[in-house]
Amino acid sequence: MKTNVLGYPRIGAKRELKKVSERYWKGAATKTELVEMGKQLKLSNWRLMQQAGIDLIPSNDFSFYDQVLDATLTYGCIPARYQKIKEKESKLDLYFAMARGLQNNEFDVTAMEMTKWFDTNYHYLVPEFTANQKFELFSLKPINEFKEALAHNITTKPVVLSPVTYLLLGKEKEEGFNKIDLLDDLLPVFYKLIEGLVDAGATHIQIDEPCLALDITDKDREAIKKLYKELASKFSSLKIILTSYFDCYGDNLETVLQLPVHALHLDLVRCSLQLDDVLDAANFKNDKILSLGLIDGRNIWKTNFEDTIATVKKVESKIGIDKVWLATSCSLLHSPYDLDLEQNEETLPASVKQWLAFAKQKVDELVTIKKLVTGDTSKEVAAKLLNNNRAHSTKKESSVIHNAAVKARVSLLTANDSERNAEFLTRQKIQKDQLKLPAYPTTTIGSFPQTKEVRSWRSKLKKKELSLDAYNELIKQEIEETIRFQEKIGLDVLVHGECERNDMVEYFGEKLEGFAISSFGWVQSYGSRAVKPPILFGDVSRPSAITVKWSAYAQSLSSKFVKGMLTGPITILQWSFVRNDQARSTTCKQIALAIRDEVVDLEQAGIQVIQVDEPAIREGLPLRKEYWSTYLNWAVESFKIATSGVADKTQIHTHMCYSEFNDIIEHITSLDADVITIETSRSKMDLLNVFVDFKYPNEIGPGVYDIHSPRVPTLLEIEELLVKASKLLPTDNIWVNPDCGLKTRDWPETKAALENLVAAAKTMRSKLEKAY
Ligand code: 39S
Ligand code: ZN
Q: To 10 degrees, the CA torsion angle through 527, 529, 530, 531?
């Protein structure tokens, strides 16, 4: 029986890679320093797994930015706009130009598009294909990393992204071809890569094929059959580990079981039922090893040893111990590094910590379970089992988890609790009378630039170098400046700027009951950016108001309306580490009730416009369509629970990013927010069409400038977008706002862009006046 780790986190236990990358991009660190940091991080991961006794240690799971972008370089699929950079710059600088765009005296190119990696909070860079796409083995990273480990006497298992999944994750940039038809051109390059790995001494290769967790077409399945058949005939002694994760093989199982691979990996955390499907399948010939993904790579709970041992024994009795591997469910990329670093009892008490395992602890779990299954009778291993049992038995009854009042409140919810009093058209009239905003009202999405200075106050507060009073005073000043700034440039609905928040989810986790907060539990979000998801371990409630003080203060400064800003229940659920001992729908409703109380308190404090953000609603969708409606029903209900406690005159806004709304527009509509702001500027308003076609009845703020780029949009560009929107939507329903929050931007570009935004809205208004 082997232990198999699918991938390891790579940003460094204390985000070392972030720090050196950002310095390198600014010109403050050398390429050598950056590359050396990469080497150190890889080596320390390999050593850790080797010393723990892991049998299959991954390589090529490291990345300076993103593993899909790495594959783009490996397969030489460089979009034409980077051709000049490719000729003149190093591969690493070309790579960063593709990841981040490049603007200097010589070059001006945009970055590749980013999107969510399956249903995770990780973003990958989307490959771009043209009809005549050419491929070449351009970067030898997988081979070099294998050799790098070998030089330290560590034989690794290279992890490569399958050419089929690679194509399916990419985007056709021209009409008239199907990306999967590019496979014939890509395969020779892929085989050359595999040959290079085999020549370097690789015996096992993990081929990641996560498209097998999605609904794919027969044509895609044929492509997969062809790939593995050819691989087996070309590399007969190579041991291929076919790896998919995040969901069941489902409809693809029959295909998968025919493939001539050495081992088949099963994500048994996300889909435990598929184990029996595989063992009972008519075409399961017991010719493959099963890699049992029983250690959760996406969450931070300790594995239940007893349950895991029982599963392994069951499989063993059917197919024999030599056919069973024990594995992480997916790459540990989505886990934080090391629980041992957590020493802050106040934010992460021992009572909760005893239930947790981060990446390093998960490696130890794998090895321990292997020992337990293979008859290790040492005292040390027996003690670990005892501890594990104890931790799990305390969980069922623990008073820090279970709160009867919260459970009762959820069970007493009625349909009434998720409906506003009047329907939208009535509310709209009341709100127009109440708010008296001009046509094309302007607003922002909520956050203003989070400067280094603001972050340093929080860092000093944590280190007790700044008192809470002094910190609050600084926050108040920052809010006042933000309000004055917005008044000066003439925005209509203001925001307080959210400078008091480290993150839109972690901040609420810190204030709600039922959450714990780690100190170093960082997980890569994209490139050098990371998030620290709060740990939702117990029933959720709100001990006291969270944002009211700041919003009320901001409102007291201005005669204009200040919008209250909250994160919605679905997004808090989706971007936290969530308990696995109760249905997510129940947990989501608990959060919804806490947010509802906050919404009501904001209204009580005189806030008339309240935004409840739900950027994660789409990525929460199950990977397979058959489960969508169940999810959407409780997600929509949760949002409505959170937002329906207010009077009709109170205007509820929501905001969503990653706006592919085509297939969920009906549910977006049923959220019944008075105003929705969405990301549309990159697509030049194309994303609006779905709202238009569906005759979306409520008000919309289609984003008119791309905040993910420092570039300042011109007045004319914004006006053009608004003219386009005004032809598609009733004037009464249009808002004017940026694409998303401004927290990653700097002040100068923010000011310039918002000035143009306000000017464009004014131009639109004057056109209206002329028309009447
Ligand atoms: N998921 C979540 N949870 N939140 C989101 O906003 C998003 N947005 C999308 C999708 N998923 C999300 C992703 N976008 C960042 C920006 C955009 C993102 C995701 C992450 C981001 O900038 N993250 C920061 C980073 O990687 C960390 C944010 C944070 O928690 O740098 N900041 C802390 C704060 O403001 C500071 C943490 C820190 O770096 O308090 N402290 C320094 C340290 O510990 C000291 C600070 C200093 O003195 O400068 O060394
Ligand atoms: Zn957004």
A: -130
Structure tokens at 365: 């779990």
DSSP state of 19: H
- Which ligand lies nearest the alpha carbon of 120? 1
Kindly report the pTM of this predicted structure: 0.96
Proportion of the chain in helix, strand, coil states, percent, rounded to 5:
50, 15, 35
Separation between Cα atoms, residue 578 and residue 587, nearest integer Å = 8
CA 675: distance to chain centroid? Answer: 25
Question: Ligand 1 centroid to 348 CA: how many Å?
Answer: 19
Residue 701 token pair = 């703020």
Report d(CA 41, CA 457) in Å as an integer: 30
**What CA–CA distances, in Å, run from 642 to 272, 539, 588, 646, 671?**
33, 16, 10, 10, 11
Ordered structural domains, the chain, with CATH: 2-77+131-397 (3.20.20.210), 425-515+545-771 (3.20.20.210)
Residues 545, 601 contacting (CB under 8 angstroms):
yes
Q: How far is CA 246 from the centre of its chain?
A: 13
Predicted local confidence at residue 16, as pLDDT: 98
Residues annotated as part of the active site: 708
Give CA–CA dist 630/301, Å, rounded: 25
Using a 6 Å CB cutoff, which residues line ligand 1?
Answer: 121, 450, 452, 455-456, 458-459, 502-505, 525, 529-532, 575, 744
List, for the chain, all residue ranges whose pLDDT scores fall below the cut of 70. Answer: 658-659, 682
> How far is 86 from 78, CA to CA, in rounded Å?
8
User: 312-321 pLDDT, tens per residue?
Assistant: 999 999 999 9
